[in-house]
Design goal:
Layout (H helix, E strand, L loop, with lengths): L1 H36 L6 E2 L2 H21 L6 E7 L3 H17 L2 E7 L5 H13 L5 E4 L9 H7 L11 H8 L8 H12 L8 E5 L6 H9 L12 E5 L5 H9 L3 E4 L17 E4 L3 E4 L6 E4 L4 H4 L5 E2 L6 H25 L1
Parallel strand pairs: 1-11, 2-3, 2-4, 5-6, 5-7, 7-8, 8-11
Antiparallel strand pairs: 9-10
């Protein structure tokens, strides 16, 4: 009797081992076939600059149509506290984009010595100003200010950055809200590039509250609801995810979205053949060969593009989409406020 039980158990173990080996072989064959079929020796580049230009052209027409029905042009006010050069550059890009699509804009420049109370008073005045549709405070703010308090001071209807806690909460509940521009840009990139996300495995690397968290929420949420989300199975990795585990999760992912600001974090060995890689990270480094500075992402672009199916460059990927979607949010705010004022 005992020998019979041992024989059965041994046979079952053998069958399990054989099944696992066959499944592993099948997976390898599928990956090789997939890579060969789609010629993944070089990934297709998702051109964020071109897609952003399409969105801005669409917005330009929509704004003209909006004004043709008797509405004033939408208006965006940006507040810049201090003299951070990167912030100056970002705000200038946003103002140029606003002019391009037909949105009027202004930049309120405040000294770094401005008190938090003074800033909140300015925001309150803009909240009550019916000629202003969108308000943004360029982050980061000086250390003596509470960033969360500043973001929450902007009324939800004019919060074009989508950072007010009520807009964040509505987004997390899969309800219509102002969605932060960078996450919205990532989702729009995936949609317009025709990347299938339904039921796919996605890894989001990073857990920042303004970028990575909204991306993860939008990637996994139900596409039937108000946010029109992506229905993927999402894994979130961050600074305390062990390197071996990060590599493991990424290697199983159909879609990798990384937003850490760590140059070269995602390498060729971590990417499944044919995967889609979206690089949100951006860091200025000095090229050791030329001594000149350049912008790079989280992804080892030249290596990863040899195995990925789709990839975004840095610069020219997510960055232009962020600005385009900020204009989208501003126009949305203008339309919503026009309806409220009419009623």
């Amino acid at each position: 009797m005992l020998l019979g039980v041992r024989w059965v158990l041994r046979t079952q173990n053998y069958k399990c081992i054989v099944k696992c080996v066959l499944m592993q072989q099948q997976r390898q064959q599928q990956q090789q076939f997939y890579a060969h079929k789609h010629n993944f020796s070089m990934a297709q580049i998702i051109d964020g600059k071109a897609i952003a230009a399409e969105i801005r052209a669409e917005l330009r027409k929509d704004v003209e149509a909006f004004k043709a029905t008797g509405h004033r042009e939408p208006h965006l006010t940006a507040i810049l506290v201090g003299n951070d050069q990167a912030s100056e550059t970002y705000v200038r890009m946003k103002m140029n984009a606003a002019q391009d699509v037909g949105i009027s804009s202004e930049t309120r420049r405040l000294p770094a010595t401005t008190s938090e109370h003074e800033l909140l008073d300015i925001i309150d005045t803009l909240n009550k100003d019916e000629s202003v549709d969108g308000i943004l405070v360029q982050l980061p703010v000086p250390d003596h200010m509470n960033e969360r308090k500043v973001c929450n001071a902007i009324v939800c209807e004019k919060d074009v950055d989508g950072f007010n806690v009520f807009n964040v909460g509505r987004m997390c509940l899969d309800m219509k809200s102002m969605i932060p521009a960078t996450p919205l840009g990532v989702i729009e990139l995936l949609k317009r590039a025709g990347i299938d996300t339904f039921g796919k495995n996605a890894v989001v690397v990073g857990r920042s509250k303004n970028v990575s968290m909204p991306i993860a929420m939008l990637m996994h949420a139900d596409g039937r609801n108000e946010t029109g989300a992506m229905d993927a199975t999402v894994t979130i990795c961050h600074r305390f995810t062990p390197p071996k585990e990060l590599a493991k999760y990424c290697s199983m992912a159909d879609i990798i979205i990384t937003a850490t600001g760590v140059p070269g974090l995602i390498t060729k060995e971590m990417v499944k053949p044919g995967a889609c890689v979206i690089d949100v990270g951006i860091t200025r480094i000095t090229d050791p060969n030329t001594g000149k500075t350049k912008l790079v992402g989280d992804v080892d672009f030249e290596e990863v593009r040899q195995v990925a199916g789709y990839i975004t460059p840095v610069p020219g990927g997510v960055g232009p989409m962020t600005v385009a979607m900020l204009m989208h949010n501003t126009f949305t705010a203008a339309k919503n406020l026009a309806k409220i004022n009419k009623s």
